[in-house]
Structure formats: structure tokens, C-alpha cells
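User: Please fill in residues for this 261-position structure.
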């Protein structure tokens, strides 16, 4: 149990605050967990957002596992395969990344940001709502590095346009770093694609924004279609040789780098 600070008693508190202090999620994230029916108090599902709990007496469970004040938050990395939605639940019953993660061991786990259904690569999961919020906030400008397979070679003019910032329908994109991958590098990228079309080119693109379908829209703005997309890095995290469909816990050094951001 978390020791109370001087002058503070552990008194009945709102369930959202309890979950946030236990490192399960931010208060907003805790509200989402409650609304989804993933939180039980003394065996009963609790959806009412004003509900209170006695931290020393009530048994609070998320996804079937008990959580207590003072538990360390979890940080995990998944190599997302194609065909999975980046959400923890889908009302239409489609495959989600939650099916690939150890939810029984890490109650309250959620993904930080999203990858399109057909996009593969690094997806971060955590129970630390504060870190997740900072990573996703536009003002922090975390770099994201992608490998994109496009339908035709990228001209020098198109490359310059991406590097200077192309115009999108929701405002100009920030300048990106662009690099054409050589044949050896291309072979190392696990693009979710069958036979590669003639004339296709593999390009590395590094951005620090996170708008919906942004990479695909940026290439479309310079006349190129993305055939396959793979995220190689997110902030200080590198996917490395993690097998597709597999997950691992972040190292202590990786967690410190995230928190330092």
C-alpha cells in the first residue's frame, strides 16, 4: 500500500482518482475503463463516474486483476501485424491489438496512439496515463520513423516538398526527414504485402506530428500512393528485431528515456 504523505489520510476517494494513483490510467482513461465495464469493486461492475471507494477496504479489479495504490505502471512494446485495429475493444468484433497483449497480467493496459489497420510496426502500451498524455500532446513533438513502400519512385522535387512541409487538407504538415532505402535496407523491412509491384520504392520518413493517416496523406500530396507502411521507431524507442505479433516489456533505460521526455 502506498504510504500517505504527511498530513494526508487515505480516505474514501473517487474511483477515477484511485485508478490514476494506482498507475492504471489517467483520470480520463479511468473513466473510459469504467464506461467500458472493465472495472469491478468488490466483484460488481462499476460504471457510475462519481463512485467512491475505500482504498484500505474495497477490492478494485481491472480486467479481472486486483490493483492497489503504489503499483508500478507498465510499459510494453508490440510489433503490430497488419489486420488488427489499434483499440482495446471493437463493438463489431473485429480483431484488435488487445488480443495480442497480456491484459490479465497488466490490468488497465491501453495503446498510446494508433496505427492504421494495415500498418505494421511499433505500438506502445502502458498503464501510465500521464506519460501517454505527454507522448501524444502535439507540443512535445515526438519523432516517429516509418518505412513506406510507395507505388513509384520519388522524384527530387517531391522529396524536397516533403522535407519543406506539404499542404494537407487540415493545414500544412511540418517538414519531414526523407531518405530512400537501398536494396539491403528494403529487404529488412517486413512490409505487409505480397508480391512487390514493379517500380515500387521504399522510403524512410520521419515526422513528429500524429494526424490521422498523415504519412499516407503526405505521400498522396506529392502524387504517390502508399502500398505498405511500417513504423520502425516512436520517440526514443526502436522496434529492433522484435518478431511480428510479439510484445516485450520496455527496459529500465527505455522507461527512463520516456519519462525524461
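Assistant: Residues filled in for all 261 positions:
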Amino acid at each position: 500500500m502506498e504510504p500517505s504523505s504527511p498530513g494526508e489520510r487515505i480516505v474514501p476517494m473517487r474511483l477515477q482518482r484511485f485508478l490514476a494513483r494506482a498507475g492504471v490510467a489517467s483520470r480520463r482513461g479511468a473513466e473510459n475503463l469504467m464506461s467500458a465495464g472493465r472495472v469491478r469493486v468488490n466483484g460488481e461492475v462499476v460504471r457510475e463516474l462519481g463512485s467512491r471507494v475505500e482504498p484500505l477496504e474495497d477490492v478494485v479489479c481491472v480486467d479481472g486483476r486486483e490493483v492497489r495504490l503504489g503499483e508500478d505502471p507498465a510499459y510494453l512494446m508490440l510489433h503490430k501485424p497488419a489486420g488488427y485495429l489499434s483499440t482495446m475493444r471493437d463493438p463489431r468484433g473485429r480483431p484488435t491489438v488487445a488480443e495480442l497483449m497480456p491484459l490479465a497480467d497488466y490490468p488497465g493496459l491501453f495503446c498510446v496512439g494508433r496505427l492504421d489497420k494495415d500498418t505494421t510496426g511499433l505500438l506502445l502500451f502502458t498503464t501510465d496515463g500521464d506519460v501517454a498524455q505527454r507522448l501524444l500532446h502535439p507540443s512535445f513533438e515526438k519523432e516517429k520513423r516509418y518505412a513506406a513502400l510507395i507505388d513509384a519512385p520519388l522524384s527530387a522535387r517531391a522529396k524536397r516538398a516533403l522535407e519543406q512541409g506539404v499542404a494537407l487538407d487540415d493545414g500544412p504538415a511540418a517538414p519531414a526527414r526523407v531518405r530512400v532505402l537501398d536494396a539491403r535496407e528494403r529487404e529488412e523491412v517486413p512490409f505487409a504485402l505480397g508480391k512487390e509491384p514493379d517500380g515500387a520504392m521504399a522510403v524512410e520518413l520521419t515526422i513528429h506530428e500524429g494526424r490521422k493517416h498523415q504519412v499516407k496523406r503526405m505521400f498522396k500530396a506529392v502524387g504517390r500512393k502508399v502500398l505498405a507502411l511500417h513504423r520502425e521507431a516512436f520517440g526514443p524507442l526502436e522496434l529492433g528485431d522484435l518478431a511480428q505479433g510479439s510484445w516485450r516489456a520496455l527496459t529500465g533505460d527505455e522507461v527512463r528515456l520516456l519519462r525524461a521526455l
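For context: The longest strand covers residues 226-234.
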